[in-house]
Amino acid sequence: KIADLESKLQPPRNAVIEEDEKAADPDGEYASFSRVALINKIYDVESSMVEAASLSFRNAVAQLHVLNPGLEFVEEGLDEEKEVRDGQILPHLPDEEN
């Protein structure tokens, strides 16, 4: 009988999920999306973020050329997916290795 009463005090599991969904999607824009549609949306957003980062990188390189007109830059090996570590341009390490 006590367990029955305790279960009545706890919110149903789907209520918690609905609260989480409301926090993540307050306007309900994605509420009617299927799982496949949501996954496709994630891939689209990820792709556009990569494209934006690449455009920003190329823009920064172009600005360096404009700001330093008398200098010739070596661009061989320059890559937006690499990082500078210990004075060298190296492939990015996964987060768990940083």
Describe the protein.
The protein is built from three helices and two strands. The mean pLDDT is 84. It has one domain (2-97). With 98 residues, the protein is mainly alpha-helical. It is elongated and about 85 Å long. The longest helix is centred in the middle third of the chain and has 33 residues, at 35-67. It has a two-stranded antiparallel sheet with strand order 1-2. It starts with a helix and ends in a 7-residue tail after the last strand. Residues 17-26 have a biased composition (Acidic residues). Residues 1-26 are annotated as: Disordered.
At a glance:
Residues 17-26 have a biased composition (Acidic residues). With 98 residues, this protein is mainly α.
Most strands sheet:
2 strands, antiparallel
Mean pLDDT: 84
Overall SS class: mainly alpha
SSE series: HHHEE
User: Low-confidence parts, pLDDT < 50 over ≥5 residues?
Assistant: none
Shape: elongated
Percentage beta strand: 5-15%
